[in-house]
Write a structure and sequence with these properties.
The protein is α/β, with parallel strands linked by helices. The protein is built from 15 helices and 13 strands.
Length: about 375
């Protein structure tokens, strides 16, 4: 009997990490029903972070809330309460930006709002976790819809951002143009155990690799809007006590910078999630590990979840296999004992995307046959 650890990231746009793990496990069990299968879905701070923790941590409890979404309308969301531990006696709150202020909330195709989407809903969810009395916070900040420097989330936490006349500025990047003063005296204090922010990017706040230049176009910003947002973020940075060049300050449209100003600590998302869900200990007892993501390419080795899972497996001298929606031609898959592309398995990318859960199950079965 084998022990199999299944630790994929989300297959973005189709299947979340928790469901991907479940379907891979279902396929494996179909071929090897007597194996012990551990589902430890991964995340890097983006979409599916709360779901990954909910699946991987026994006793985790969803806390339903209603927040202000990126279109300024109510959104039903949830944050996650992890059980008490010795270093977090009142539990840990896990909050993700994706489900409260994320671009996925703008529909399909998204109704992009490059200047008006903000992070207020994310801050409202963080506030709800603080009101509950958690000992520490873990915040995922991937999949942002906005470029507001974190003004929305900080406003929800008690900061005041005003124009030259002392009036509150508008939400979103549009408000940055009128910003004259930042008052952080009313900010909620950090919980006793601090705030850990999960991010999969290390971009600075401004400049050629900053929040506006790199991510603004994905959120609908025109070249002129990108230039204006970058200049406004640079001016905004002069008002807050944080390093605009810090790695990750430009994450989530500058929300990383805003959280640094609050006193949070930014860390690589995949490594932090792996530690929090006990992945290394589980892999140490495993015979084989499965990981994966939607598209595995030449950049996937740079801090993405599958690469981190593979590194943990190699350190434990445990075989690791990759499942991906597609495997790009520039991807180095030499570190994996086996690789399955859902597009190849299904016959085409369109066929795989039409029934991703089915093909993930088939991939799990194929790997059980090959590695079991």
């Amino acid at each position: 009997m084998h022990t199999v650890v299944i630790a994929p990231d989300s297959f973005k746009g189709t299947v979340g990490a928790a469901e991907a793990a479940a379907r891979l496990g279902e396929g494996w069990a179909r071929v090897r029903p007597h194996d012990r299968v551990l589902l430890l879905p991964m995340a890097d701070g983006g979409e599916g972070t709360v779901d990954a923790f909910a699946t991987a941590v026994d006793g985790a409890q969803r806390q339903a809330i209603t927040v202000t979404g990126p279109e300024g309308t109510p959104v039903e969301a949830a944050w996650l309460l992890l059980p008490a531990t010795s270093d977090a006696p009142d539990g840990t709150g896990v909050v993700e930006l994706a489900s409260t202020s994320g671009i996925e909330l703008l529909g399909t195709p998204p109704r992009l709002r490059p200047l008006d989407a903000g992070t207020r809903g994310f801050g409202e969810a963080v506030t709800a976790a603080l009101d509950h009395g958690v000992s520490r916070l873990v915040l995922g900040i991937g999949s942002s819809a906005s470029t507001d420097g974190g003004t929305g989330l900080l406003s929800a936490l008690g900061a005041r951002f005003t124009d030259a006349a002392g009036r509150p500025v508008a939400d979103g990047g549009r408000g940055l143009a009128d910003l004259a003063s930042a008052d952080l005296s009313g900010l909620r204090p950090l919980p006793p155990g601090g705030v850990t922010v999960l991010s999969d990017v290390d971009n600075p706040l401004v400049g050629a690799w900053g929040a506006a230049a790199v991510f603004g176009p994905q959120k609908g910003a025109s070249p002129g809007e990108v230039q204006a947002l970058d200049a406004e973020l640079a001016r905004f940075a002069q008002l807050l006590p944080a390093d605009r060049a810090a790695p990750g300050a430009g994450a989530a449209g500058g929300a990383g910078f805003g959280l640094l100003a609050w006193g949070a600590t930014l860390v690589p998302g995949a490594a932090a999630v792996a530690e929090l869900i006990g992945l290394s200990a589980a892999v140490g007892e495993a015979s084989v590990v499965l990981t994966g993501e939607g598209s595995y390419d030449g950049q996937s080795a740079a801090g993405k979840a599958p690469a981190h899972v593979a590194a943990i497996a190699h350190a434990a001298e445990v075989a690791v296999a990759l499942v991906a929606g597609r495997v790009a031609g520039d991807a180095d898959v030499s570190e994996f004992a086996a690789t399955v592309s859902l597009a190849d398995l299904a016959g085409s990318a369109d066929a795989a995307m039409a029934s991703p859960a089915h093909w993930l199950t088939e991939a799990g079965a194929a790997l059980a046959g090959a590695l079991g």
